[in-house]
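@channel sequence for tomorrow's demo:
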Amino acid sequence: MSEVLNLTGFIRDVKYTACLTESLDRVCLEQFDVNESRAYGIIEAQNTEVAYSKWVSPKRIRSYPFARIYNTYNASKILTIIPIIKDEGRDGDLDKLQYSTVSWMNLLNIYIVLGYYENAEKSQKTKQENKHKLTKQKFNNEFIKNQIKEILNYKQSALHWNKSLLKDKVYFDFSTGS
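structure tokens (generated this afternoon):
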């Protein structure tokens, strides 16, 4: 018969350096276009900067966003841009932001920028021309940039920002998880 060993404790003073990260391109906030920029980099603004990564879907298993987040992890302030919903059309998938994603970003101290797609094209891929599927979704860039400006001036933790974002701008009930 095997024994079960239960350990309890508290981890404090976590220190580390992310290894094997890629170098980050820098872009001025005024020239930043979320739809044209790389998947990760550094946004510079008046005497401050923030590392960013972006997701193409709120679903974590489809586009592997954690690899992009990892590349930003040595920065002192990090944000990630996530679409709150991605509708791929009647014959496509409908992906929605899950609370577990928000929880992970809180634990990693990453500020969330919620975006929405305002434009898309009908897919013309082979074998999909007769289906009702969308592709090439485009974020509303000004909406994204306004949130980034707020984060650059925000002085509390990512946890506070993310919780406020979901309560005040999206309305997410933390007691029920919906």
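heads up for whoever presents: The chain has a mean pLDDT of 86.
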